[in-house]
Structures are given as C-alpha cells and as structure tokens.
Hints:
- It comes from Symbiodinium natans.
- By secondary structure, the protein is mainly alpha-helical.
- It has 3 domains: 1-91, no CATH class; 106-163, no CATH class; 172-245, no CATH class.
- The chain is 59% helix and 0% strand.
- The protein contains 13 helices and no strands.
Amino acid sequence: MQGDIETAAQVLDQMNSSGVEINVGHITSAMRACWEASGSTHHAADFLFGLLLDLELQPDIAVFTCLVGAYKTAPVEKLTNAYATMKDFGIKPDFAFAETYLGTLLRKPKEKKFNQPEMIAWLHQVPMPRIAAAKVAMKDFQLGRLKLTSLSRKFVAALQVALPSNWEGLERQVALQCLFELLRDREDHWAKLELMKYTGFQNLKENDLPGLKRMGVDQRVQRLNRDRNDDELARLLKKHDQARTDPTAELGSDDEPGID
C-alpha cells in the first residue's frame, strides 16, 4: 500500500462498504502511502484524518507522524495546526515525530543528506514562517527533554543561527507571517522574548491577541488593517513600518511598558 494512494483509498473504501471494521492501523498505512507518494498529497491525508475522527477512532503518535509527513507540500499553517491538534489529544512527540515534523517544516528533501554547514546554508532559503514554526517546536522538544535523532540535532543546531538579528529589509508580509507563527501555539514568556530579540516589539502581552492565533494569516492581516487605530499589535507593526522608512524611529521607546 505504501506509495500508492489510489490503492490505499480503494482498500479503505472496499473495507468500509463491505462492513469490515477499519482500525487506526489501516488509516495509518493509508496515510503513510500519502507520505511516500510524490506530488501534493495533503488533501488525501486530510480526508483520511477526517475519516479517522468520523469513525471515532483515537489517533496515536504514528497517525500524526504520517500526517505531517504527508504535508510535505502543504502550507505551514496545516503543519502547525496538526501539531496543535496532537497536543490537544494529549499526545507527546517522540523522536520519529520530531524528525518528521522538523524535516517537513524545513522542506528537507528526503533523499538529501546534509552536513552541518550544508544544513545551515539550506535553511537560508527556507521561508521565515517555517523557520519560526520550527523554532517553536524545537523549544517544545527541548523543554520536554525529548531525545532527538542525529538529523534532528542538525536541524536544532542550524536553527540557532537561522533567524536574522533584526528584520530590516524584510517585506512587511514576511514580518507579519513570522510574528504570527512565533505566537501561534505558545503566547508564553519564551515566545515574547523571541519577539523582543528579533523584532524590537516591547509590549506584547498574552491578552493582546484574543482569537488571532485561530485565524489564517490573511484573516489576521484583515483584522489588523480593520482595527489599525486601536489594536495594540497593529500599532507595534505600524512602528515597524515607520522604523524601516525612518532610521531615527525606535521600535521600543523607554516610555512604553515592557513585557511583564
């Protein structure tokens, strides 16, 4: 079944129509087929995960590992949503999930082997939102004292130098995406310190962003544009814009409150 999505789908359909009870292992195998196949397979993986939930089956770490593996061409938000869903189920990552999740986020070709300098060079061409999401996951894995594979350790080492020291020259949309990815799953002290370090935003608080982390990037941008006059985050982003056009402008002035 691996590498053959059509065969996997046909087998599941035949089992379902003939009354054979589908279990988690069957769906995991079908998801692995999506993972192994070439091209865009994340829609098929979404269908399979939806089927698993419809059948009231309990996903396990193998399901989520295959799911994120099948997301190799999916938008970054699908990956971060899958990781958030896994945590909602109370499932802790293992070394296989960590390697697959980081590798998919960072778009590492499956057949390509990197030494450490090559890995760092590779990450320079990975979009910033994916780098930011990988750093969030990396911190989770470190806090959980997860034992990582040698490839994951290379990812972690490369991620330490993957973000620029400042955002000068970045397009505003890129800055927005990176900012939201850093805050997506964890509005905690570490994420806020990251924002201070990389953006100069000084007064983000956990209650400043109600509902934003449940929105897509475009929806967030629309909301910020709509509420630009009274939204604190919008004001910070406006300062970011001004600082790019006026080198004398400061992103975080002394008269503004810092992070609590």
